[in-house]
Design a protein that fits this description.
Strand content: over 45%
Structural class: mainly beta
């Protein structure tokens, strides 16, 4: 069994920063790509940022220059540093990862989500 657990969400004012964390745990053999997605009310879920096991990164245009994704491969952690937050960043943020378990099966996993609200 594999779990992804996000933390670090909250309520902030425009222009402030938050750092999200996601920890993968369970019967893990290898963690491949990891990423962050978000979903606002009435909107489709969108990919915010993704980082490969080798460190290749891509960002959504809407967050480029403001958000930074990083990972700690040894600890199966992925982070999202969010600076200069805007009201339109308000959403539930989800962690996502491709993980090979100890039975050699690769699956895509989702966390439960953490709420980020940007409002004055």
């Amino acid at each position: 069994q594999v779990q992804l657990v996000e933390s670090g969400g909250g309520l902030v004012q425009p222009g402030e920063s938050l750092r999200l964390s996601c920890a993968a745990s369970g019967s893990i053999f290898s963690v491949y790509a990891m990423g962050w997605y978000r979903q606002a009310p009435g909107k489709q879920r969108e990919r915010v940022a993704r980082i490969s096991s080798g460190g290749n990164i891509n960002y959504a245009d809407s967050v480029k220059g403001r958000f930074t994704i990083s990972r700690d491969n040894a600890k199966n952690l992925v982070y999202l540093q969010m600076n200069s937050l805007k009201p339109e960043d308000t959403a539930v943020y989800y962690c996502n990862a491709d993980i090979k378990t100890t039975d050699s099966i690769v699956r895509n996993y989702w966390g439960q989500g953490t709420q980020v609200t940007v409002s004055s």
